[in-house]
Please model this.
Amino acid sequence: MKKIIISCSLLFSVSAVFSQNTPVGEIHGNFQTDVQYYNPDTLIGAPPVPEKMLMNGFGNVIYTRNNFSAGVRYESYLNALQGFDKRYVGSGIPYRYASYNIDNLEVTLGNFYDQFGSGLIFRSYEERGLLYDNAMDGIRLKYKVTNGLYLKGFVAKQRAFFTQGPGIVRGFDGEMNLNEMIPKWNESKTRVTLGGSFISKFQEDQDPTYILPENVGAWAERFSINRGKFNINGEFAYKINDPNTINGFIYKPGDAELLQVSYAQKGLGISSSVKRIDNMAYRSDRTALGNSLNINYLPALTKQHTYNLATLYPYATQPNGEIGFQTEVVYTIKKGSLLGGEYGTTIIANYSTANSIDKDTVGVDPDYGYNSDYTKIGKDVYYKDFNIEITRKFSKSFKFTLFYANQVYNKDIVQGLSGFGTIYSDIVVLDFTYKFNSKHALRTEMQSLTTDQDDGDWASLLLEYTISPHWFFSALDQYNYGNSNSVKRLHYYFGSIGYIQNSTRISINYGRQRAGIFCVGGICRNVPASNGISLTVSSSF
Amino acid sequence: MKKIILLLSVLGVIISTGNAQTNDRKLPSVEVKNLEGKNVNTSTIANDGKPIFISFWATWCSPCKAELNAIAEDYDEWKKETGVKVVAVSIDDSRNMSKVAPYVSGKNWDYEVLLDPNGDFKRAMNVNNVPHSFILNGKGEIVWQQNSSAPGDEDKIFELLKKVAKGEEIK
Model:
């Protein structure tokens, strides 16, 4: 790794020397750190923190000049904040790359992120707020053969914390944009894109009893057709037998299908998607667990909520088998009409479900696993969510949103537990924004979640006062008033003050926090559960 | 020997940093797609010598949507006075990407919408969190950026755009 840093730096130096009279390119970057001092909190089950204070931080520096770009990311976990994988420990430069683009060929050396199609067989990405990072490390080539024909190939290992996984991943992808390829079709109203990809991973078999496949191949085909208001796209993926920890070391091959249709016209948008996943856990280490060494990405087809009580029971895709369906309608009632009001009213309705797939084990070799009938939907409900959101602006200064959701959450399946069963909940949110003048505004969220299961009922109140463009002050209290255990009827109070100066953001937070997407002070972040005082600084240049 | 090379290299970096013209940074070259499925190279985003406003957003980010909805109401006036083009870059991944076009149409947004499902453009622009927005002047240079959005920010952005449209410095 040192060598690569040296070579990157050498490249910088060379460019500096040779560019006395020409612009030397640009250096830019971004930085974020979260520092937290922990209060002991046995009530929310937060383990004691012997260090008292923990810190996560990272900074990117990217150099670009014409067709050349190189970058490094320094990361530091001293030690990693509560709620994150403790295998992130210490400091280092786990990400560095150099890449250039010449004659339609792009060469990347070092680390890279990429995705084939919708990711069913390959997606390498980062979600810094969650510390999800399965960056590739190796060599990638991208080549534009002719207009509309794009090829990509790579050979690389995957990042696992500050080390690399044992497997080698090889990938190839081709995409044809027919409208770009065929001159006659350039201006056609119908746009067609076709793609195909292949991934193979190699990992030695050291198992004393089983003969495990050392090379596991997966392939996928995809299409996308767009005509005016309509769009339809799909991807179909297949993986050969790949016994691994997640699937219980069965030899059955896996497959996944994803089909999405949408319609969009002025004031109205409709989207529907359906997917089926069967034994598609695919990692560059067959024994990997947690969020590490995933080669592919299996999207959850459920609404990604932002109201905090609606995110209390979030769904996660079940790689061993699931059939999911989702549909969403966005409709804006015209301004000036009786129902639309002076500024228009928008209604968003969404419905999603996830069920088990059919699994038949009768007469099937236990090492193979099961047979599955495509035409059947399994009996177990994993998740259901019906939700509707109505937003109306009453005047220049007053906006109101009413939100309702009915959710069914199979806690045992989604969290891999037993004995918790299924949680049925109703969520109501009233969200008001009042603008006092062009700078001062107050937003209030009143939320309620009612359920007879799990932790029982919750209420939540958020007040957020903003002074554009520099300041925000917010106070949140989530109260688990309906917990059947009276000791756990807790308030999760959380206060936050922030200052923003262009791309620099500083915020100080105090209180108890639940895990989830947290939108406060004008941005959204993924946060872990915690209790204490914290400081977040982020900036970019 | 290694140490000497490293030292020299670091020196080189420092020199190049000193000379780097970070003030007139332009858009990097990244491949993204628009809602019709066309490939768009981000370095070709242009607006005929007039300002551009770029906003990174997601369907799950309420402050992002609040800001873009507020701008949508005044977009005609913005265009008339400053000639600005708004480019809304969705960082939704394949989980939510198919909901982007229906949302944009359902909300009557008249923006150029780009899809950045694996965060390549986001990373190249050094965006930490959404919303993060940028103003480009008529030469395509990034002259202003902000990470976050609060009600009322749109008025300030409009004021800045008016200055940029006249060729004034806004730093």
About this structure: Chain A touches chain B through 107 residues (CB under 8 Å). Residues 14-22 of chain A have pLDDT under 50 and may be disordered. The longest strand of chain A covers residues 377-395.
